[in-house]
Amino acid sequence: MAKRTTPFELTLGEKPLQISLTRWLHEQLRQAMLDGRLKSGSRIPASRDFATLYKISRGTVVSVFEQLRSEGFLSSKRGFGTWVNKLPAHTRRVKKVLPIAWRLPSPLTGLTFLHPALPFRSHEPALSEFPVAIWARLASRCIRRASTSLLRQRDGRGHPALREALAEYLGASRGVNCSADQIVIVTGVQQALDILARALLRPGDTVWMEDPGYFGALDAFRNAGVKLAPVPIDEQGISVDAGRQRAPRAKGIYVTPAHQFPLGVMMSPERRLEVLSWATETGAFVIEDDYDGEFRLDGHPVSVLQNLDKNQSVILIGSFNKLLFSSLRVGYMVLPKRLIDTILAFRFGIDQNTVGLEQAILADFIEEGHMGRHMRRMRDLYANRLRTLRSESERLLKGVLEIPNVKAGLYAVGFLRNGMSSRQAESAAMSEGIETMALDRFLLSGTDPQGIVLGFAAFDDDVIKRGVATLAVALSK
User: Fold this and answer.
1) pLDDT-based confidence at 1, cuts 50/70/90?
2) In whole angstroms, what is the distance from residue 180 CA to residue 411 CA?
3) Please, which pLDDT band fits residue 91 given cuts at 50, 70 and 90?
4) Which alpha helices (H) appear in 55-159, and where do they start and end?
5) For 24, 58, 318, 408, which has the most beta carbons within 10 A of its beta carbon?
């Protein structure tokens, strides 16, 4: 049986003057095994190597090894070396593990996300359609060609080649006005929100928050001690009139204009200008979360709100976990020039090294056109899957669940017409093996919108059809 190789040097404590070298070494090795620092099956260096490593006479080491073998702590065999035995339970020191006070964000309480995904999980893209072979080829090439400059890079803004590629890509695909110097790479939208909340706001400041809205933004602002002013959503997006009434002098606003989360409303051109006008009047900043704006399923993608900003009010944030795959922890902030130094100074204090090989791989993926081709293919695929969801729902759920005209994103909202509350529908669906989320989970205030979130991106037509049939049974009970 193969034994575990132990990474030496093992840290040994100082030897007290009053005890012998042999006793000290015996106690140090014995305690390391009892504490679990030397685990069962771990190999111990040969006595000659051990003596050289710790500058101890070989005779002392041999004597200690023999004593530990006689006590049952070690075993040895010619040709196999010396290793740590499995210790009886009563000889091991059991460390008390303190309970962890961590908990899920409240909107996720009671939900279980199993793998593989069940229909209709809303936060996963079609991972099976990602061009893994292309990514692997780029990764292999990047590692083979990795320069010392890449390996030593410490730039608070991120890998220069990725920022250059992103500036060009975002300008072409989303209408973003920026240079590479305005882009800061982060691990995702959540880190961007955390940095912005703590760098730009003080405890007690107020921010407009879409209601219902994204719980990750809610947590980021609350963790920074910020007060939230819930602002309702209408058919044009966030209600600026309501925001003016509730918090006219708020310091900022968080919005998802391309595809409001979770209701799916696209902010109208008129409402976008209203938001920017208010921000200009008050000196407030606008955080625009473009979480899935690339996936415009009806016509071409619309430009970002940042495109209309003439007063350096808008901070655009986004990530690649829905565009490509969720374990790619790369996101970005596009900062107004006036905020670059402020954000970089804050960033330097918490995370000085933001460059990794995955950023170099992603830069090549974008520069060589793979990103654009993948996005076009995914838009066609998701549009077809949405059509299947809508047609099957119309056939099997008419009068029970109504899906409005969806124009973007990876999910649709179904509004209940059978008298069920959002939580009742969620519970009924889950009892039949359907994974969905109740709309009231995203409320800050107000009444239940009576609806559920239905993700379609990760599921092929057959799975969607079976899922709708099962959902129809669940909601008819």
Assistant:
1) very low
2) 31
3) low
4) 58-70, 132-144, 148-152
5) 318
